[in-house]
Batch of 2 targets.
Target 1
Amino acid sequence: MEHLIKSKIIENAQTLFNAPINEQLVQLQKTRKEVEGDLTLVIFPFVKMMRCSPQEAGQIIGDFLVKEIPAISKYEVVNGYLNLVISTDFWVNELKNIHADDNFGLQTPNSKPTIMVEYSSPNTNKPLHLGHLRNIFLGFSVAEILKANGHKVVKTQIINDRGIHICKSMLAWQKFSPINAQGERETPQNTGIKGDKLVGKYYVEFDKHFNAEAKAIIALWEQGNFENYSTAIKDEFIRLTEAKNGKDEKAIKAIDDKIKDLAKNQTSILKEAKEMLVKWEAKDAEVYDLWSTMNQWVYDGFEKTYTTMNVDFDELYYESNTYLLGKDIVEEGLKKGVFFKKDDGSVWIDLTADGLDEKLVLRSDSTAVYMTQDMGTAVERYNSHPDLSGIVYTVGNEQDYHFKVLFLILDKLGYSWAKNCFHLSYGMVDLPEGKMKSREGTVVDADDLMNEVVESATEMTKERGHIEGLSENDLSNLCQMIGLGGLKYFLLKVDPKKRMKFNPAESVELNGNTAPFIQYAHARIQSLLAKSTGELNTINPSEVNDVEKEIIKQLTLFPSIIEEAGRDYAPSVVANYTYELVKLYNQFYQSVTILNESDEQLKQFRLILSKNVAKTIKTAMKLMGIDVPNRM
RNA sequence: GGCUCCGUAGCUCAACUGUAUAGAGCACUGGAUUUCGGCUCCAGCGGUUGGGGGUUAGAAUCCCUCCGGGGUCACCA
C-alpha cells in the first residue's frame, strides 16, 4: 500500500505540484493511535511548491488519493499531516491472504546470494560462558533471519585450538593432575567431569602457579637479589619501582602490573609452555598426541552445550589448519605495493591516510599474526565457495578496530567482495552485580546458567499447575523450552551493539517483554483452536473492531520486519515486533468472547485471526531459535 | 592522550531513512474480569532524551563542544 501511494504521488507530481519530485519527499508513516487513520503523509515538504496552506495542500492530495486508490476510503488533514483511512475490506482481504499463505513472511529458500555467518569461535582451553551465549544466539538468529529473507546461509565457526593458551592447560594437566590407582591422570572418563570443564580447570591451575611463581620472583627482586636475571631486567625493575614515587593509587597499580608482567615473563612455567608450543609447531609426536586428546575432550564438552542450546553449524574451521594461511597474500600485497617491508623483515600496511595507523601483517621472523590468518581465511572461504556473496562475523565489539582494518586491507588488495563483509559487533553482557571478570571468578558458565533458567522455569510451571496429563518427559521438554526460550529472548531483544545487563530471574518471568509471556499467548491460542470445531474458512464479518483491525495491520507488517531485521542484522527487531503483536492480541482476547460468540461468521473470523497470530508468533520465535509449546 | 561506541522514567529496554503530545515492561497506586487458560485488561504516577551551542518548517536522531562510562591502540589471539 505504501508503495502504491508513493508511486501514485510521484507519477502525478507534475499535476499536483507543478514540478517533479524525488522519492525522499514522500514520507509515509503509521498514523498515531489517538487519531483516526492508518497511514499518514507528511505534507510540509510540498507546501512551498504548492503555494498554499498545509491544510489546503493536504486536501488536494487527499482528494487525489481517494479518487485514485479505491482502498483509501477517506482522509483527514490535521496540523500538516494527511491521515488516510484504509477500508475494512482491504484489511479483511489482507487477512485472507495471510491465512492462505502457509509460509507467511518467509521468502523462497535459496533465492538470494549465499552468505556465510560465523559465530561462537571458542578457545579450546576453557568452557563457554555468558558472553558466548549472546554471541551464539545472535549469530544463529541472524543466520535464520537471512534464510527467511531467501538467502542461502552457511553457518560456521572457527575454533581457536592452538597457541600458547592451549599449551598452558596442557602443561598444567601434565604437571599437576593427580595420578590414580590405575596410574592414569584425570580424564573426563575417570572423573565424570565434562571435558571442557576439566581442561578449563587446568587452565586455571596454570594461572595459579604462574602467579605464585611471579610473586616469588618479585619478592627476590625486592630483596635486591638478581642472581639469575640479566642487568636489563634489574635496571627495568629499579626504574619501575622508582617511578612509583609520588604517584597516586591508580598509577601505582598500573606500574605494579607492569612489574608483574616483567616477572611473569621470567617464570619457568611460562618458558615451559613456550617450549611446548615450539614442539607443537614442529609436530612433536608426544605433544601433538596430548593436544589432540585434550582438544577432543573439549569438543565433546562443547557438543553437549551446543545440543542444549539447540544450535548447529554447517562448517567448522580449525585455527590449527588456518594459522599458516595468508602468507602468500602478504607476498601478493607486497608486489602490488599495498604492503611494505621494514628493515628487520617485518611487513606492514600504512593506513594513516585512512585515519588509522600502521598495522603489522607479518612478523620479522616471517610468522603470521592474527590479521594474516584472517586475511587468508577470508580468501580461502571465497575460494571454496564460488557463490559466496558475503561473510558476517559475529565477534564482540572489543574487536571493532581489528575488523575495520581487516576489511580495509581486503579492499585495498582488490577483493571486490570485501565490501560485503560485515562485523556483527555486539556489546558486553553485564550481570546485576556488575562486570564479569575471570580473575575474580565472576564469570557465569554457560551450562550452569542454562541449568539455572530451566530450573526456575520448572519451579514456576509446577507452581502454576495445569500440567496434569503431561508425562515426566513432556514436562521436562516444556520447561526446557520455557527456560531456554526466556534466556535466548532476553539476550536477543536488546539492540546487539549495545552493552546490556542480564538478569536471569527476569528472563523467565511470565510478565513483560519475555519469551514465556509470548509462549503463553501462543499456548492459549492453541488451546482455543483445539476446542473449536469445524473447518475454519469464513472470513467475512459484518464489522471489524479497532483492535482486530490493528492486529491485522500488525500482521501485514511481518514480512517487512523480517527484511529490516536482515538488513540491520538485528534479531531485536523481530523480538520487539512479536511482543507488540502479543500485547495487541491480549487486548483483543480480553475484550471479546470467541468460543461463545453467537454470530457464527464473527466467531470464525476471530478464530482465524487468532490462528494467524499464533502462526506468526511461531515463525517469529523460530527466527530467534525459540520453540513455542502448544500448551504450558 | 589518539581513535571508537554508548548516555532516554527509580530499574531493564523501545522509538524505521529527522516529523504530531518521546513509548513499553518491571516496581508503585487505584480499578475491571475471575468464564476460551490461572500472571489477562484499563487508568494513574513517573522525562529539560547527560549539559550547552548549531543546522532545519521540524532533532533523542545530523554537526560542534564539554561532562560521564565502555572498548581499543602488542612482532597476543
Target 2
Amino acid sequence: MHAALYHYINQYTGVTLTNPEQELVKNAFTPKKLRRKQYFLQEGDVCRYLAFILKGATRQYSVDEKGAEHILQLAVENWWIGDRESYMMLTPTIYNIDAWEDTELLLIAKADLHQLYQEVPAILLMARQMDDRHSMAIQRRVNAAISFSAEKRYADFAATHPEFLQRFPQHLIASYLGITKETLSRIRKQAI
Amino acid sequence: MHAALYHYINQYTGVTLTNPEQELVKNAFTPKKLRRKQYFLQEGDVCRYLAFILKGATRQYSVDEKGAEHILQLAVENWWIGDRESYMMLTPTIYNIDAWEDTELLLIAKADLHQLYQEVPAILLMARQMDDRHSMAIQRRVNAAISFSAEKRYADFAATHPEFLQRFPQHLIASYLGITKETLSRIRKQAI
DNA sequence: CGAAAATTTGACATGACTCAACTGGAGTGG
DNA sequence: CCACTCCAGTTGAGTCATGTCAAATTTTCG
C-alpha cells in the first residue's frame, strides 16, 4: 500500500527508509479512497490533510461569482494535493478538490507531519524538495499566464505535461490555462 | 547593518538569535549596494545569491521575443529576491532582476545558506516560513491570473499591496498584472 | 441502443492590445 | 530661471484575440 510513497521519498531525496522509519511513515499516513466526482475538499472547509496520490487523478479549482470553475491544479499518481494556505493557517479554503477518476490517497494531518519531521529526517528533506519543485513550477506558470498568448500557453502545457492531455478532457485543460473550451478547440485545430 | 535581518527572523519565527548566532548570520551574508537601474541578475546568468532587501526596491521580469518586459515580482524592504530555479539547479536564468531605486542588499550563496541551516536552526525555520508564505501568495496570483478580469486583478492588487501603488509607477504594475499601461490607465479612470 | 459528456462550429460581442499623438511633471544644464 | 529632454500617464481610433451563446456533432459509457 505505502510502497509507492517510500519509492517517491527515495526518488526525491536519495534516502532509502529503514524498516523502523517505514513503520513510522506507515502509521502517520491514512489510506483513503475517493470515487470519481467525490470531494476531497470543499470551499469553506478547513483543509486538515495533505494527501499523496497513489492512484487516480484529481483537480483543484475555484468557483467564481458566475459559477464558472477555474482549475488551479490537475494531479495524478505521485502528486500531492491539498490547500496549503488552509492547511497551515487553519482558515476556510476558497478551493474545491475532487476526484476526476476513482482515486486512492494517503492522508496526513499537520500534527502528524510535524511529528514525522522530527522522527524521519528524510521527510523533512522531501518536504523541502517538494516545496522547491512546486515553487519553480508555479513561477513558470505565472510567467506563462502574464506573458504568453493562449496558443503559447497551450503549447507550453502540452510540452511540459504530455501525459495530462490523455488523462484529462480538454475543457479542464482549457480552464487550467485560463481560456474557454471553445478557444482551446480552435487553437488545437489550427495547430494541426 | 544586519539588524533588519535579525528583526525579520525574529518576526517570522519568534526566535531571537543569540549573540554567537548573530555572528554566524552576519558572516554568512555579504552586504551589497545597487544603484538605480543596476542589474542584480541578468538573463543567462546563474543566480548565485539570494538577497534580502535592507533598503530600496527591485523588480524581476522576463523579456519576450518582441522585447516586451513582463514583471514577475516587485520587491521592497524585507523581501527576498533571486531566481530559485537558477539558484538551486545552477541553470541559467530566464529572468532579469534590477534595482528600481538605489538598493542595499544582503547576499547569501547557496553553500553558505546550507551551512547556516546546520548552525542556526532558526534560519531553517525562517526558510520554511518564507516558502510557505511565498507559496500561498503565488497560488493566489495564479488564481487571479486565470479567473479574474483585468479590473478585478487590479482591485485585488491594490487591496493586497497598497504600498506598492506609491512605490512603483503604473506601467510596472500593469506589467505585473499582465495588462498594458493603457488598459490600466483606463481601468483607474473608471474606478474613480 | 440511448443518454450524458465532450468537442466542434458559427455568428456575434467585447475586452484588451496596438499605435500614435498629446499632456504634464521632474530633472538637468546653460 | 528658462529651455530642453526624459519619463510617466492619458486619450482616441482601429484591430485582434478571446469570450459568449446556441446549435450541431462526436465520443463515451452504462
